[in-house]
Amino acid sequence: MADNFLERHREEYEARKEAWLRKKKHLPRQRTPQVAKPDDEAL
User: Fold this and answer.
1) Measuring CA to CA, how many Å separate 3 from each of 7, 9, 12, 29, 33?
2) What is the pLDDT along the chain (43 residues), one digit of tens a residue?
């Protein structure tokens, strides 16, 4: 049972994580709409 199971799965996980981070970095950001505040704060 000690056939490097954990090490192999850790390496696969790290590879998937790295690919996911590379893909995530190239996606455009979702911008939230800015709410315009009135000039007069008394309103």
Assistant:
1) 9, 11, 15, 42, 53
2) 568 899 999 999 999 999 999 988 887 777 887 888 777 766 5
Give the type of residue at 11: E
Q: How far apart are CA 23 and CA 28, in angstroms?
A: 11
Q: Is the dihedral of CA 23, 26, 27, 33 positive or negative?
A: positive
Distances in Å between the alpha carbon of 11 and those of 1, 5, 42, 43? Answer: 18, 10, 60, 59
The structure's pTM equals 0.52
